[in-house]
Amino acid sequence: MFELVVAPTFLGIDLGTSGLRALLLREDGDVIGAAESHYEASHPQLGWSEQDPKHWVQALETCVQNLSERYSAFRQITGIGVAGHMHGATLLDSNDQVIRPCILWNDTRSHAEAAELDRIPAFREKSGNIVFPGFTAPKLVWVKRHEPEKFARVAKVLLPAAYLNWYLTGEFVADMSDSAGTSWLDVRARAWSPELLSASHMRIDQMPRLVEGSARAGTLRPELAREWGLGPDVALAGGAGDNAAAACGTGILTQGQGFVSLGTSGVVLAARDRYAPDPVSAVHTFCHAVPERWYQMGVMLSATDGINWLSRITGKRPADLSAALGEVLQAPSREGFLPYLSGERTPHNDADIRGAFTGLGIDTEIADLTRSVMEGVAFGLRDSADALKDTGAKLDHMLAIGGGSQSSYWVKLLATVLNKPLNLPAAGEFGAALGAARLGFCAAAGADPESVMTPPKIGQTIKPDAALVEAFDEAYGKFRARYPNIKAIQ
Fold this sequence. Notes:
With 490 residues, the chain is of the alpha+beta class. The protein is built from 17 helices and 24 strands.
């Protein structure tokens, strides 16, 4: 008799700011299918951004039901990985109950507390980063100062991905890449720093256990395994912060590899094979989701958010705004745009800075505004790319990913502003959900990350427009001069 051998499958979960995506992966690396469920953030006051963690769980259960009904391969899941938006403060009491809504990465209420912590030399020395207002540590100082009764109840602080890890396993566990964005991790040593925790009135026992992102962090809770129709030994990986997971999904593990992401926020990321922080540049230096690797990235807070904002005030869809520009890259716009709608990280570290149009005239039309917004975002991403180069990071092979990369005009513009060819992945999955599934594969099978996290097939390479490189260099210089009072990083 022949025994039917059923191949294992792996579930990747990407917990995003606006929704959750769950992806089912075969052992051979092919994607079986995916499901999404959406939710919203609340903004009770100006600069505040919060979510109720129960909405994450509801979204996960919705996606699981969707996948289990559509694909019989769902029942062969042996490994799960979770990626999540970073820096969020999810506070649990001693009964594992959520104390207050999670304070998200794009919440700026703790800017004063961040500045106070950043003046303590140990934070930059050990975390390798500026203490940004969006990071986790200043959020807890804010809670202690403004919500002392709630602070007194805090038994555990979990990042969003770690909260789902707890829901799935019943264990408090997080990975290095996500935890590096708290300002509590010794990023070189890949361990919680008692000194940094103490400086922000926290203790190690309030932190989750740390594991590498590709390592086994726990086992799916028996009651969930039964409910989902799975076996008794489903491994859960340590997981990753969203950008580290995207790097795993795009095979960016080694020096010279990187990507530029045109998402809600804009990211220029470079993989590093050594720890080389440069906090003065406002570049982020974090642990990668695989052992003995790090990555660095420059982050701007409003990338496609700029086009989405323009879409709201003009009543035109983002895709229509882009399509109106055509396919041929035009010379720099007379109109300028400062893309600081929600403050900025790299290179300015300024929560209060805001956007502006310049050079408007009676003849300015919507298409001119669209071009200037795209150019402003491209210049902001060049700020990050230049800051990364100053740290010694190499950007030899760059992918363009994120929703904004669907605009061919924007990608041509960005390639020209950066003066670097940008590779567009062929159609298919290559983002954080895929990276999370690959981490689940590694955790369940003990697979080598290098063999699992391979680059995607390239569908197209967009080269800089050589005839316009010099013109955009000059325009970038004007962009830098348009805001002379931006705070310098000290």
